[in-house]
Amino acid sequence: MDCDDCLERLYTFLDKELGPTERKEVAQHLADCGDCDDNFVFEERFLRVIRDCGTSDVAPTELRQRVLERLRRDTPPTTL
Ligand SMILES: [Zn+2]
């Protein structure tokens, strides 16, 4: 699995709708690939914020924008 494959499956993975084999492959790639792991962590947080807002349907673009801004503010500076 490469990064494109991983990103393609990221939302399905987050929705827990992947089969066991694909789940394993995505999880393995996330463990190996820092870039995809960053994306995964970000999207996971995004989905959690949406859920906390009580919005179960697809987020309107405006809401997504607002959440993204909030996430960026909340993200602590990288200490690498
Ligand atoms: Zn990757």
C-alpha termini separation: 27 Å
What general outline do the C-alpha atoms trace?
globular
Q: How many helices in DSSP terms?
A: 4
Query: What count of domains describes the coordinates?
Result: 1
Gyration radius over CA: 14 Å
In terms of DSSP E residues, the strand content is under 5%
Mean pLDDT rating: 82
By secondary-structure content and strand pairing, the structural class works out as mainly alpha
> What fraction, in percent, of the residue positions are helical?
over 70%
Biggest pleated-sheet summary: none
- Reading the helices and strands in chain order gives HHHH
Provide the low-confidence segments as ranges: none
Bound molecules: zinc ion
Tally the beta strands: 0
Description:
- The protein is an all-alpha fold.
- It has one domain.
- It has helices at 3-14, 20-32, 34-52, 61-74.
- Helix 1 (3-14) crosses helix 2, helix 1 (3-14) packs parallel to helix 3 (34-52) and helix 3 (34-52) packs across helix 4.
- Zinc ion binds at residues 3, 6, 29, 33, 35-36.
Give me the secondary-structure topology.
Blueprint: H1 3-14, H2 20-32, H3 34-52, H4 61-74
Helix pairs in contact: 1-2, 1-3, 2-3, 3-4
